[in-house]
Predict the structure.
Amino acid sequence: MKRLKFIALCMVIVMGTSCQNLKKTPKKSELNKPPKETYVLVHSAWLGGWQWENVAKTLKENGHTVLTPDLPGHGNDKTSPADITMDEYVKTLTTILDQQNNPVILVGHSFNGITVSRVAELRPKKIKKLVFLTAFLLPNGGSFFGAVQGVEGSKAVENFFLSEDKTYALVKEEEIQNAFAHDISKEAFEGAKPYIVPEPAAPLSYELKITDENFGKIPKYYIECTDDKAIPIEVQRAMYNGKVKKSYSLKSSHTPNFSQPEKLAAILLEIKNTD
C-alpha cells in the first residue's frame, strides 16, 4: 500500500511539472513575432526630445519602447549653456543605457551624431545598432567646428554665430526655417520656434575619441536627407561612404522628424530587421 501511495505521489509531481512546462511553451503566433526593441532617439542641436514626438508615436504603436531624452540645456533641462560640455551630454546618455537590460538602437540627429559616437565608444555592449540621421559621422579626432570648415551651400553654416561671451551658438533668426525646416509650413514652424534654445558652444569644439575596438564594431546605418540645407547631401555622403552597413534616403530637409515622421519611423523599423 505504501508503495502504491509513493507511486501515485510521484505521478502527481510529474504531471504537475509537465502541466507547468506546457503553460510556459510559447504559442506559435508568439514565436513568429519579431522581438521588441528599445530605441533611444537623440535630438539635434537647438532642439530637444520633443522633436521626436510623431516618430516615437509610430514606433510605440508597433510595440517598441522609445526614449527621447533632453540633453543638458535642451527641452525641459534648464542647465546654463556656460556650464555644459560634451561630458555632460555623454553622461546623460550612458546613464540611460546603463539602466537598460538589453542593447538598444541608438539614433543621433545632426550634431549629436558626434555625441552618440562617443557614447558608443564607451558603451559598445549596450548598443545593438547605431543610426545617424543626416548627422555628423566623424573619424577619431574630428569635431563639429573642424567638419564645417570650408563647407559651402549650408544655410546653417552661413548664418551661424556665437554669442558675445562665446558660451552658446545661434543661427540668424530670419534664416532658421530656411536652414533646417523649409519643407514644413510657416505656421508649423512658428509653433515650434518657442522651443528652440541656444546651443552650448563647448561641445561644438569637442574632438571625438573613438577606437576600432569599440565604436568600430557596432553596426552603423545612415539616413541621408537629399534636400538638406544645413548639411548638404554631398557632405553627408562624404562622411558616411564606406563606414556604414546600409544607407537610406529621404527627400527631405534637415528635419524629417517634422516633415516626414511616418517615413522616418518606417526606416527605423526597417533598420531593426536589417542584419
About this structure: The longest strand covers residues 127-133. The CA atoms of residues 56 and 66 lie 6 Å apart. The longest helix spans residues 2-24.
